[in-house]
Amino acid sequence: MMFDFFHRSLRNKLLVTFLAVGFLPFLTLLIYTLFLSQTKIVNKIVVEQSDRAQVVVKLINNNLLTLKNEVKFISSLDLMDDILAEDIDKRIARLLNQKSSDLGGNNILLVTNTKGVVVSSSSTKQSDQKIFNVQELSSKNNTEYIKGNTLYISSKITSSFDKKRALGFLILEYNLNNLDIYLTHQNSIHSYIINPKSDLHIGEELTLPLDFKQKSDNVINNQYVIVYQNIPTIMEGWYIVYAVDKSVALTFFYDFVRFMLYISIVIFIFVIYLSLKISKGVVKPIEELTKATDNIISTHNYTTQLEIHTQDEIAILTHSFNNMLKVTSLALDKLEEENKLRLKRFIQLIETFNTIIQTKTEDECIKTSIKQIKLLTNKSDLQFQKEKLKHTNNEHISLHVRNFEDNSTLYFGAIDLGFEEYTDKNEQNFYNSIANMIILQLDRIRLINKTMSASHAKSAFISNMSHELRTPLNAIIGFSQYMITYEELDDDQKEVMLNIESSAHYLLEMINEILDIAKIEAGKMQAYPEETDVLELVQGCFKMLQPLADDKGLEFHLSSEKFQNKMYMTDPKMFKQIVLNLVSNAIKFTKEGFVNLELSNDKESLLFKVTDSGIGISEENINQLFNDFTQVENVMQKQHKGTGLGLSLSKKLSHILGGDVTLMSDGIGQGTSSSFTL
After folding, report:
1. pLDDT of 557 over the 90 cut
2. Which residues constitute the domain of residue 58?
3. Of 525, 547, 574, which one is at a domain's C-terminal end?
4. Which DSSP letter does residue 599 get?
5. Residue 3 pLDDT > 60, yes or no?
């Protein structure tokens, strides 16, 4: 029963193989990762040594603080008045010896007079002859400092009966090597205290490549796990360092790794044996199926059938594969026939499209379309009717064209196809595609005709306006200037004449802009580049528009510090027209604040930038402003009328010069920045 269980199920065979090959190594690796990870061991060492360093730093600080308090206490004793007596060595010396003994360790207590000369000491060595710097001691009242490996804790001694009278100083010379008692002395753990600036050591003479940039940190290299901690307050700048030998700390870990290497050999041999044993029975039928599949792919013989020898999942798969081959063979035969028909229809559709798209008039389009449909349907009685088809059972295609006046759809007519019913949905889609092509060509013909008519009308209008309007406007300007100059007019009359002249100039400017746009669209506007002093040209525009800015009380500045005075090959007339348009626009739509001009260049381009604090533009309206005859509705627009051609004309002129005009704004009321790049 057990062997039959494995014989009948490919899944069970694979399950045994996967358990043997994958589960045992995975379980071993999981145990190693969770419990014996080298990283975890190292991190634990870092945490332990960091905690130890913090405890030791606290003990050192407490000890030094105790010494400081003791020095301060001794210096405040009334006994210190004996400094004034001639026999000061008796009581003070006994006190210093006693206190030095109580403090323990290698330290010396000294008493100096106000001149810094040692007058009493707990030691009989030559240190009695030291002379301390009085100014240094005075500036460090009740404080401490370190020189070399010696900590000096000093406190000023004052008279008990007159606190303002200084008698001298009490100084504790504390050898920092005493701190060695706080360090750990083990074979696997190295510890010492170091001053990185002076390279002074306390404790073990071990030099490690450390970079003491932080108060505390840890470093892990191939040999040690290192932790260092700054000693604050009195020993600021000194660090306590703990270094643990990795080879000792990770001994157990390395033993476990060796164990894993030995056991992995046994597991590897077991896995190979089990895999070879089971794969022989699993892979063979799959290989046969793969071989048959490759043969079918190379020969395209979908009538092939595979033999079935087993009763497991492979047998079920083989049976399904045989059925799939039968269905595939039938489907391919049917698909080949359909593809031939679709290819034929597709070619016919392309030929029909190519023929219809070459027609020039509506009548030619309809006649050509009917001719093509006759070739497709083999029907000779096809007809086109303008009115909607009535009393017919035949299939037909309706044609609806676009009315470009109001963007609506109009019924154009219908073509009777000459048969009662489509053979299938694809056939209906085929004729619908032809109908869409006919409609598109009709719309194209109608749109071309409409566009040509509009273009001719616009050209005639511009030509007539040029002749009919510019001549009388020039006369009006001349007459108004004559009246202002030579006639004796009162103030009201003169104001009327000035308004007439201003309005005529405004109309003439509008006409010139429209004529320029028309010339550009007709391709008749050409640039005539010449050597041009751009800075001089921009300064001239600045001076020309200065009065307009002054009338509105605007801050008006021109910056050219970033511009190298170079000559440029450009059309000065077009360049000046663009600059005047951009600057006058900024002044026009800035009620208060500033209008700043900036001229700069680099190796690749020239930039003229105008920044203002005006009404601003919303993001969705920026591109809209570059369309002909387009203005954005706003409060100031009601005060300043115009054609809406300024920015459009400037952008087109900049393109002729090989540049571009762009606008930027953070929104309504946030000002505008316009740039002309050449």
Report:
1. yes
2. 40-248
3. 525
4. E
5. no
